[in-house]
Amino acid sequence: MKAVILSAGYGTRLRPITDYLCKALVPVNGVPVLERVIRRLAGYGFNEFVVAVSHLGEQCVHYFGNGERLGVTLRFSITDEPQGTAGEIAAARHWLEGEPDFLVYYGDILSNFDVAGLVTRHQQKDPLATIGLVRSYRVATGIAEVNADGRVVAFVEKPPLPQPTNAAIMMFSGRALPWFRKGEDISIDVIPAMLRADEWVEGFIDENAYWHDVGQPASLARAIEAVAAEEGDARTIILGRA
Questions:
Q1: 3 state SS of 114
Q2: Regarding the domain delimited by 2-137+166-230, which CATH topology (the fold level of the hierarchy) does it fall under?
Q3: How far apart are CA 179 and CA 184, in angstroms?
Q4: Is residue 41 exposed (0-12), middle (13-18) or buried (19+ Cβ within 10 Å)?
Q5: What's the rounded mean pLDDT across residues 128-148?
Q6: What are the boundaries of each domain within the chain?
Q7: Between the CA of residue 229 and those of 131, 139, 210, 223, 241, what are the distances in Å?
Q8: How far is 140 from 144, CA to CA, in rounded Å?
Q9: Is residue 241 over pLDDT 50?
Q10: Which of 186, 226, 230 is nearest to 88 (CA)?
Q11: Rounded CA gap, 220 and 230, in Å?
Q12: Position 13 pLDDT exceeds 70
């Protein structure tokens, strides 16, 4: 099975480290985040990967090569500037033509999401797209409940959202390829357009997954702790600090 990993972008939230290091190579307990994503997906049976990179993307090519070291086949789709998440798929379209289905995984996400369950649901039902969803996402600020007089009657700092949220892990039918266009975003443009056209978009919820956006320092630190716990490693290494 083929998977597309979206690792393009400047990694601005992780500056200054991403001024000189491709964001896909940011280490999590000594292992680049992209390598962790590839190894996890390979464990689910994915053996061919297209990795979309832009800023400092040549560093990934030099580090990973053709993927032989990881036991997979790697191809890199390198653009001078980020194309938007949908645009990155469009740029790699020639590698996906003829595929019945393919996975899209945002490269700045570390999670133990049930990818096998997502794939099975998608293959059984055959929708145009199946979106991975989690319930573990916490908002980045406090949420207030205010009455009609303007008085705050409840306040919760960074609560978990009750609704399932986008895990940035998705399966698409090969029929979906024409929906991806340069300069557009999968979540903002493609999925809403599919729904407006009354296309079948399935949702697969993993109730128990941990999910961390490693593209920002606070969440990166939590991801490192989660990975360390999962691997039984007492060490927590954050961007070179033990």
A1: coil
A2: Spore Coat Polysaccharide Biosynthesis Protein SpsA; Chain A (3.90.550)
A3: 10
A4: buried
A5: 83
A6: 2-137+166-230
A7: 27, 23, 12, 10, 17
A8: 13
A9: no
A10: 186
A11: 15
A12: no
Phi, psi of 233 (to 5 degrees): -110, 120
- The 10 Å CB-count burial string (b at 16+, else e) for 109-121 is bbbebbbeebbeb
| Percent above pLDDT 90 for the chain | 29
The pLDDT of 111-117, averaged and rounded, is 90
User: Count of alpha carbons within 13 Å of 21, Cβ hemisphere only?
Assistant: 18
What is the C-alpha separation between 151 and 149, in angstroms, rounded?
6
Q: Which amino acid, 52?
A: A
- Both tokens of 123, joined, read 């293959």
pLDDT band for position 12 (50/70/90)? low
242 pLDDT higher than 60? no
pLDDT of amino acid 158: 77
